[in-house]
Amino acid sequence: MADPSTSDVAPPIYLINLAHRRDRLAKMHARLAAAGLAYTVVQAIDGRVTDPAALAARFARPGWFGPLSRVEQACGLSHLKALARFLGESGAAHAVILEDDVRLAAEAGPLLRQLRWLQPQTQLLKLEREREAVLLGRPAPIAAGSLVAPLLGDHSGAAAYIVSRQAAAALLALSPIPMLPFDYLLFHRGISPIARRLRPLQLVPALAQQDNRGRGDSDIEPSRTALTLARTQPHGLAKLRREARRILRQADERASITFASARYVEIGFEPAADPSVTS
């Protein structure tokens, strides 16, 4: 019998979806079916109806970043639920995690149906474009026109990524969970110790991008609005801590550019024709 952890086997794909967003599920079914990708739905935790105390009990006390809304906490726990499903159900070395509001590139099907191109030691690979240009390290070509590079700058968004078994276990072992949005936890090396430990990579060009970059029909943004000023305009010690981290992050980026051949790279994304849109 073939080893199920080999890269010739289709990786499991877990699609995180809120139960009441059947509209999104229908869109993603059409998109993934058109790409020839099988998937498993993970029902997201609904922060609007979950006991706030039960959510808060999983997280550390607010740090320099400030508190998270209940919906943001539930989003992070939904990703951890998907990672637990991966470890409990599959013997594959890597899994693909998707949120339910992403467009896919034409290359998504061929690249995600098997992962022969993925280096076995890869812990975390971001498939998504959220920003136009991101600070990346030395790239490694993987296929015609595609490359993978160390993600050295902030690139938020956790709507599409590949995660290894080891990385999934490390994330599930976090107790308490740092009080950071889950995308920052994964892909913001400047403020997330686990991101520095997992050394995330970026795929260029991206295979996914959120519909309207997650802002036009977001279940998270409304709950985040009330916290924005506290995060972006802190006072007192919180402001000093933020400024100190900003200076250190900028120094780290300059060092990466000077000594590690890092540079800002256009991520790029060419969406496939969207089968979920009917005329």
Helix proportion range: 25-40%
Which percent band covers the strand fraction? 15-25%
Structural class: alpha/beta
> Given the structure, what is the number of helices?
9
Main sheet: strands, sense, barrel: 8 strands, mixed
Question: How much is the radius of gyration in Å?
Answer: 18 Å
Uncertain runs are 1-6
Number of domains: 1
* Terminal residue distance: 46 Å
CATH class reads Alpha Beta
CATH architecture verdict:
Alpha-Beta Complex
| SSE arrangement, N to C | EHEHHEEHEEEEEHHHEEHHE
What is the CATH fold-level name?
Spore Coat Polysaccharide Biosynthesis Protein SpsA, Chain A
Q: What's the total count of β strands? A: 12
Strand order of the largest sheet: 2-1-3-9-5-10-8-7
Taking all residues together, what is the mean pLDDT? 87
- Inertia-based shape: globular
